[in-house]
């Protein structure tokens, strides 16, 4: 089993800083903001489970038979089932969903107002909403309703669902972590999206011949593991992740796909420039915030080369990476952010960089930040 806490003094090549604040296309003004009030983390009120808790309360108030949802417990409903009820259910059933949407939108607005009161989020012009909940039509309506509520409260901010499928956005965004010079000889990269419930690895086709700004990048193939359904250790997660990546590398070699020697990783938490996680990884199995745990180093040790070239691994916060998939479509605004709604609430705020600075040097650099590191 590959060790998650390497003992060797060898380190991966430094092509870009982990958790960088200055990337090729954007400055990352803030990510993983941990807003609190007297009840705890504010973001918990709009996590994926929060919507279903709200919906369950409204269902409990109803006393009529539901034509589409029937007696299925709320926690067992899929997003597609709720969407079907929203489209084809009886008025009473549709009203229950709309009531839950309205209440959830009010809570989401409260979170956005808290964020936009902070220094880093002031003057945000647009917010994209991604994460697992975004996949439902009812969630898209909740986002639209939140925007209307914001405007009713004199908040001049636009909200829109993330453009790509959320399952793919976290992979496509990883392309923006790589230094642009690496794209001169390669058309595909490996990407990893780690969440509190699922872990995805994929091959991303850059399609630079169609669009140099990565707007045509697409996921070529993926591997998925729902680790939240199993009792696993941190080390088992790392080992499974390595196996998934090696499978994709073998697949690429078999199909004559020339992979760049690069792995882009999106992971929950505040990512330090050395690849350790300072905080915010509490939803992952085991202690990912140990000062002796370094995921990028573990991946590099297990996969030291790709196609005969030394592997470079760059990791950033998962909300940042998912947000980066929107970079080509955010050129009409200057300051924008992303919210990812899943096991928890991820967030990041960006400022677009001048076009003339694109492609300079490394893929990112990081300002000096200090944080206490937790040990096992």
Automatic annotation (TrEMBL):
Family to which the UniProt record says this protein belongs: Belongs to the ROK (NagC/XylR) family.
Domain of life: Bacteria
Gene3D superfamilies tied to this protein: 3.30.420.40
Official protein name in the record: ROK family protein
PANTHER family: BIFUNCTIONAL UDP-N-ACETYLGLUCOSAMINE 2-EPIMERASE_N-ACETYLMANNOSAMINE KINASE, ROK (REPRESSOR, ORF, KINASE) FAMILY
Native source organism of the sequence: Ancylobacter mangrovi
Pfam families reported in the protein's UniProt record: ROK
Extent of Basic and acidic residues compositional bias: 1-12, 357-376
Residue ranges of the region described as Disordered: 1-20, 352-376
């Amino acid at each position: 089993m590959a060790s998650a806490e390497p003992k060797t003094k060898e380190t991966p090549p430094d092509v870009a800083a982990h958790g960088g604040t200055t990337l090729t296309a954007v400055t990352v003004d803030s990510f993983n903001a941990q807003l609190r009030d007297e009840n705890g983390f504010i973001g918990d009120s709009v996590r994926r489970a929060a919507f279903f808790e709200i919906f369950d309360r409204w269902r409990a108030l109803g006393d009529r038979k539901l034509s589409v949802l029937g007696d299925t417990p709320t926690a067992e409903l899929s997003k597609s089932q709720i969407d079907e009820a929203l489209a084809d259910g009886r008025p009473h059933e549709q009203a229950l969903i709309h009531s839950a949407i309205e209440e959830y939108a009010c809570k989401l607005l409260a979170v956005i107002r808290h964020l936009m009161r902070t220094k880093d989020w002031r003057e945000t012009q647009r917010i994209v909403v991604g994460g697992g909940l975004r996949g439902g039509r009812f969630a898209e309506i909740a986002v639209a309703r939140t925007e209307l509520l914001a405007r009713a409260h004199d908040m001049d901010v636009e909200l829109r669902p993330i453009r790509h499928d959320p399952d793919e956005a976290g992979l496509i965004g990883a392309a923006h972590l790589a230094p642009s010079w690496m794209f001169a000889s390669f058309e595909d990269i490996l990407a990893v999206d780690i969440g509190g419930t699922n872990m995805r690895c994929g091959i991303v086709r850059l399609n630079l011949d169609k669009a140099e700004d990565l707007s045509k990048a697409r996921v070529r193939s993926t591997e998925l593991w729902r680790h939240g359904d199993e009792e696993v250790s941190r080390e088992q997660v790392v080992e499974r992740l390595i196996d998934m990546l090696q499978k994709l590398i073998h697949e690429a070699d078999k199909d004559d796909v020339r992979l760049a020697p690069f792995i882009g990783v999106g992971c929950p938490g505040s990512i330090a420039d050395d690849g350790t996680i300072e905080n915010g990884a509490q939803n992952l199995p085991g202690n990912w915030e140990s000062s002796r745990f370094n995921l990028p180093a573990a991946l590099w040790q297990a996969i030291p080369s790709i196609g005969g070239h030394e592997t470079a691994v760059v990791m950033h916060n998962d909300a940042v990476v998912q947000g980066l998939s929107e970079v080509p479509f955010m050129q009409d605004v200057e300051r924008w952010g992303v919210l990812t709604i899943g096991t928890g609430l991820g967030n990041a705020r960006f400022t677009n960089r001048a076009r003339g600075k694109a492609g300079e040097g490394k893929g990112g650099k990081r300002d000096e930040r200090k944080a206490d590191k937790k040990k096992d």
